[in-house]
Amino acid sequence: MFMSDPVYIERNGAIATVVLNNPDKLNALSYGMWMRLGEIVRELEADDGVRCIVLRGAGEQAFAAGADISEFDKMRANARVAKDYGDKIEGAMRAVAECRHPTVAMIHGVCVGGGLEIASQCDLRICGASSRFGIPINKLGLVVGYGEMAALVDLVGRATALEILLEGRVFGAEEAKQKGLVNRVVADDQVTTEALAAAARIAAGAPLVARWHKKFARRLADPRALTEAERDEGYACFDTEDYRIGFNAFLAKQKPQFKGK
Length: 261
Fold this sequence. Notes:
This protein is α/β, with parallel strands linked by helices. Helices cover 46% and strands 16% of the residues.
């Protein structure tokens, strides 16, 4: 990957950082960026060596300031072409939401529109004190589609999601924390440190356990009753090598070195 790419990866061992790279436009997402984001996350999901994915915007001014509106006269000129564009957006967001590896959104500065929709797909969101949030799409006369809205409703509930969408207001980090949009608010100069520390803590844990926890949490959002096989999967960890490694390390008062097996 090259730092001139619209989306690129920085790799540090088991932690992969995916960078949205359009800093001149506050990392507003072009069609190509949406496409590449989905491709990259799927590539990383297939990599057993990855234990955590961090998503961030290039620089420290913005996570992402939504979609690149300058493309709308072409990409959203009418309902037919807008549907294809929307399908691509939803595909990229599904890639993040359904990724088996844990994901952390490192949020510097502006996180609005499509940027907030991407962040809402992540498992953890850590932002700076001066970060700004919102989905002011009503000012464009556009709707947030079902696929784009689902994660926001799951995250903050129907009432708060509607408050965000109906008012179209941009608000600060503390209010975002109160609404449940972010897990942690830290000083602006500590966002990178704290997000990478969280990723390191995740990567130090048993990777199979992290993937199971993500799977179980996703399944519990489904109102159907759990099957016996699904319940039994909660005990599969006891047959893993990582369980033996973790158990023995605990007894020896040592740091476990998990293998993902």
